[in-house]
Amino acid sequence: MKIHAIGGYDEVGKNMTALEIGEDVILFDSGLFLPAIVGVEEREKIPTEKGMRALGALPDDTYLDRIGLRKKVRAILVSHAHLDHVGAIPYNAQRYDANVFGTPFTMEVLKILMKDNNQRIRNKIIPIKIGSSYTIRGKSENYKIEFVNITHSTIQSSIVAVHTKEGVVLYANDYKLDNSPTFGDKPDYKRLRELANKGVKALIVDCLYAPDDRKTPSEKIAKGLLEDVLFTTDNKNSGMIVTTFSSHIARLKTITEFGRKLGREVVFLGRSLGKYMQAAKNVGQAQFARDIRIFTYRRQVEKILKIVNKNKKRYLVVCTGHQGEPGSILDRIARGQVPLQLSKEDHIIFSSKTIPTPINEASRGELEKKLKRYQVRIFDNVHTSGHGGREDLRDLLKIIKPQHVIPSHGDLEKTTAGAKLAEELGYKLHRTVHLMRNGTFIKLAK
For 14, what's the count of Cα atoms within 13 Å in the CB-facing half-sphere? Predict the structure, then answer.
């Protein structure tokens, strides 16, 4: 058994890992490097594959060509619906004679992304329900795959399990251990313990916040933070704008419920919000959508903002742009490029955290400068993360008890923090815990 690191081991994003067993290869994820394409979701013309590769947005899966593995790929398994895990599928899946598997919401997001961008792949897209399994036929052996429920900042996220003759391989990108989720079920600890008892050969695990000495708070904490901001501040006569991650269906549900409770009409603005909400509706995961109106394209957005501007206290606007992405709705509002005029004491609520990259931090800083010129009230970081901290990782390792640990989803600083924690738990560096870089592989002894 070999594990190949293709993307997501030198950076946060473009996640892609290959599992090689004999004559078979199974791929986990194929995501974008989002800092390279800041604001791409709001563009009406998406770069071509050549353009995306030139931007450095795609994982370098030509690595598989260089070592002769491309034709051995039997399946592409996608852990969840975030673009840094699923976004490269439309650009590189057709390089492989393999079906694409993921949870129903994840596969629906993939279909909508491709439809909206006029993209097609010849690969069959197969949705797999959380908790169910599917058999992939290989040349060396057959492999049972399953998607185990895990909590994260989008719905129907999973830890992917691949059953092999040498043991189970678990791919845990991304996860948090939320025991009080506001939408969906808590992690399937029962199944994870069953897999641990069966024998987990290797765990490939998200270490984005492994350097942070904390347990990531539950989404119910974010709900409480939002409730505090929305119901204990004087906003009766103020305009109100909330911005958050378009894929965070649980958070969007909470914002909608609170908006209606405030007696405001809730409007969602932005193409990416439209895409994720449509996917959620298509798989029956957005009953709250009946309480909102969604506007996506430029003319639609400008028309509704002209209406909102006449009586801002009647509306709660939910829009894209929490990272300060150029061309996003909030960026255009701040620049005065739409018919909504900000006024003193209007509320701008960031139900998000700035993703820590130089581009995002610079864009967000510029956005705040523009917003403050209007003397608005800014409420920042009304949010809890979707990624586990150091203590979540400790608990996950204790539950799963893998033979080998492979830290992933971050640069060397982040994966090293994960490796050091594994060492505290008795793993040995280079023997049972392995630090990897993009374009490298390790061979695990039987």
Answer: 26
Q: What Rg, from alpha-carbon coordinates, does the chain have?
A: 22
Residues above pLDDT 70, as percent of the chain: 98
The yes-or-no verdict on residue 201 having pLDDT over 90 is yes
Domain 2-215+386-443: CATH architecture, name and number where available: 4-Layer Sandwich (3.60)
**Which class would CATH give 219-379?**
alpha beta
Burial 28-66 (b: 16+ CB within 10 A, else e): bbbbbbbbbbbbbbbeeebbeeeebbeeebbbbbebbee
Say yes or no: do domains 2-215+386-443 and 219-379 share a fold: no
Per-chain mean pLDDT for the chain:
95
- For β-strands 440-443 and 315-319, DSSP reports them as unpaired
Do residues 346 and 239 make contact, with C-beta atoms less than 8 angstroms apart? yes
- Confidence class of residue 181 from pLDDT cuts 50, 70 and 90? very high
pLDDT at residue 42 in the model: 52
* Residue-range domain boundaries for the chain: 2-215+386-443, 219-379
Residue 441: C-alpha distances to residues 19, 280, 363 (Å): 10, 37, 36
Q: In terms of pTM, does the model score above 0.90?
A: yes
